[in-house]
Amino acid sequence: MTSRWFLLSTLLLLCAPALAHAEDAAALWDKSCKNCHGPDGRAQTRMGQKESIPDMSRASWQKRESDAELRKVIANGSSHNPKMKAYKDRLTPEQMDALVGYIRTFKAEAKE
Ligand code: HEC
């Protein structure tokens, strides 16, 4: 019995930071990225249309872009378009990693 409670509380302790992480990434996205990339990464925004920002929910886009490439653009900005700024001075490495993870969740709604 005691060992079962121990297991359960250990599990909860292990999950808590992961949950907090997911919320952080969503909040960060809403605050810093949504204006251009849209709430769902589809970039159906004025900036998205004007700058032809890629639709991050597309499976082909998700497949083409590696985590490392996404991480690099977030940290250093885009070499193609100065509107995509470098975030390395504004976000921690953990926040940038979390955002890459968050971008991967857009694929769930993918329609090709
Ligand atoms: C002021 C508008 C703007 C904001 C705010 C913005 N972006 Fe971007 N982002 C762009 C544009 C424009 C591009 C397209 C650049 C290009 O063509 O390579 C882009 C491209 C990207 C790409 C690469 C897409 C690709 O196909 O290579 C990633 C990843 C990205 N943004 C993530 C983010 C994240 C994460 C945030 C928030 C921390 C953010 N962006 C905030 C405008 C913005």
UniProtKB/TrEMBL annotation:
Instruction: Give the record's keywords alphabetically.
Output: Heme, Iron, Metal-binding, Signal
Task: Give the matching PROSITE patterns.
Answer: CYTC
GO molecular function, a single term: metal ion binding
Cite a single Pfam family from the UniProt record: Cytochrome_CBB3
Q: Which residues form the Cytochrome c domain?
A: 20-107
| Gene3D superfamilies the record matches | Cytochrome c-like domain (1.10.760.10)
Region ranges (Disordered)? 38-59
Endpoints of the signal sequence: 1-22
Sorted alphabetically, which SUPFAM superfamilies does this protein's record hold?
Answer: Cytochrome c (SSF46626)
Provide the protein name.
Answer: C-type cytochrome
Natural source organism: Corallococcus exiguus
